[in-house]
């Protein structure tokens, strides 16, 4: 079967690269959480957003680790989703 770029290794590679999503690994401090339920709620709210993957909230360290596609979702979008359910998220710099 033919597809654009077939027969040319350089073109194939370029097409793959153009379609790749670069996920940025990020860590946030979350304030206002007092039990595991809070952590689960933050995790659920952020997982719903487009452009995030592998969202893990730790009640022990009061942090949230995730991967973000910068072309789809901003740090502020994530902070707003967390704020909406009553917590605060700040990117660890
Ligand atoms: Mo736990 Mo959080 O009872 O909003 S769920 S303190």
What's the topology here?
Layout: H1 9-19, E1 24-31, H2 36-47, E2 52-58, E3 63-68, H3 75-84, E4 88-91
Antiparallel strand pairs: 1-3, 1-4, 2-3
The structure holds dioxo(di-mu-sulfide)dimolybdenum (9UX).
Dioxo(di-mu-sulfide)dimolybdenum binds next to α2.
Task: Please explain how this structure is put together.
The chain is α+β, with helices and mostly antiparallel strands. It contains three helices and four strands, in the order H-E-H-E-E-H-E. The protein has helices spanning 9-19, 36-47, 75-84, and strands at residues 24-31, 52-58, 63-68, 88-91. The chain has a four-stranded antiparallel beta sheet. The N and C termini lie far apart (48 Å). Residues 8-16 have low confidence and may be disordered. Bound molecules: dioxo(di-mu-sulfide)dimolybdenum (9UX).
The proportion of residues in beta strands is: 25-35%
Estimate the helix proportion, in percent: 25-40%
Number of extended strands: 4
Overall, the morphology is elongated
Ligands, ions, cofactors:
dioxo(di-mu-sulfide)dimolybdenum
What's the pLDDT, averaged over the residues? 87
Count up the helices.
Answer: 3
| Largest beta-sheet characterization | 4 strands, antiparallel
Radius of gyration: 18 Å
- Secondary structural class: alpha+beta
Separation of the first and last Cα atoms: 48 Å
How are strands sequenced across the largest beta sheet?
2-3-1-4
Q: Detail the poorly predicted runs.
A: 8-16
Order of helices and strands: HEHEEHE
From the structure above, extract its key features.
alpha+beta, 3 helices, binds dioxo(di-mu-sulfide)dimolybdenum
């Amino acid at each position: 079967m033919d597809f654009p770029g077939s027969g040319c290794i350089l073109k194939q590679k370029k097409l793959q690269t153009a379609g790749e999503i670069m996920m940025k690994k990020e860590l946030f401090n979350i304030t206002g959480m007092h039990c595991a339920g809070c952590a689960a709620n933050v995790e659920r709210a952020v997982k719903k957003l487009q452009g995030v993957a592998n969202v893990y909230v730790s009640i022990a360290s009061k942090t949230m680790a995730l991967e973000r596609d910068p072309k789809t979702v901003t740090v502020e979008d994530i902070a707003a989703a967390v704020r909406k359910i009553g917590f605060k998220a700040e990117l660890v710099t």
